[in-house]
């Protein structure tokens, strides 16, 4: 039992003892009143027989357990002296009764003063234990048994109470740590019934909540895993608590699912400095970084603070892969550089031969024909370069033309028709092995540009009297 219950136990025992004492006092009071009434009656009776023979008077006194002392009795004993003290007091009534302790024992004293000499009747005061000793012993034993049963029942109830309370506390602990609680059943009138009902309801609510959280967490994890950008969450202890597959691919490392220091995965100094600055200065950072794991990997790194509270501070790391974009930008720069160089050649040729013709060479028919042919070829080459530039411009604008079903063989034949003159000049044998019914759902302009470039390259870089085969092959990965 607890200290509080021990105090309650002692209080209950004290109350039981007090009840027993009160009961004894009440019985003694009843006996006292009965003795007082009896003594008054015996005083009246004694006044009538006082003149009878001494033997008869003594017998009556013995039968009624009385003693008599008169005012003329010598004061040799304590009893006689105590009676004398009673008689010498100033009493307003002629006949009175008092309670007097004489020689360590209480007596009921009845004084009769209506005649001479004055006599005093003394009756020993009876107690419950003196009057009915067997009954008093029985009552005491029964009450003692009753008290022991009450105290035992109290202790047993408190013991069961704390035992059940301990189970409920353990169940709350199990609920907190997602363990199975111990089943417990109470009657509706039990003191812990309401608490047990609430704990069971809490267990049901927590299970339902955890199921919802698990579903939401699963959806969130799938969303994070399918993001094309790298995601990583770092807690206040600089440990990785969340990441997705894209982050591991960008860092080119296998990130452990357990909590671990982020420096185990991130080896680039600029990147780690960004993260440390976010933790130190409590603000987000953004920077373009070339990862040390792969010198060809360029990323757009963002480190975002998620919570400003120090004990719950987290940093969200997001990496956008810029490698392809950088590669495309470099290709565009290289293309522009090459195109600029390629444009100079036909323009210079056209300008030079045109100046030569203007200077008088046009008067020679053979020279005129030769120069005009060169000017035509260079202008054709210049037109092709301009078309390539326009095609690249269309790709950069990301044309939003709706896709449509297009016959592949029809587009190939249309492009071959446009380049028929070049084909005849180089005497190239063309073979098209594409089914008539084969169609693609795509943007017609882009597909036409691709096929046009392929056919043009096949003609330009082909040998004289060579062959050009255009066929479709289905490759299943």
Automatic annotation (TrEMBL):
Subcellular location: Cell membrane
Enzyme Commission number: 2.7.13.3
Cellular component GO terms, alphabetical: plasma membrane
Boundaries of every Histidine kinase domain copy: 338-477
GO process terms (BP): cellular response to phosphate starvation
Catalytic activity: ATP + protein L-histidine = ADP + protein N-phospho-L-histidine
Transmembrane segments: 12-32, 135-154
Sorted UniProt keywords: ATP-binding, Cell membrane, Kinase, Membrane, Nucleotide-binding, Phosphoprotein, Transferase, Transmembrane, Transmembrane helix, Two-component regulatory system
CDD domains: HisKA (cd00082)
Gene Ontology MF term list: ATP binding; phosphoprotein phosphatase activity; phosphorelay sensor kinase activity
Name this polypeptide is given: histidine kinase
Organism whose genome encodes this protein: Latilactobacillus sakei (Lactobacillus sakei)
Gene, per the UniProt record: hpk2
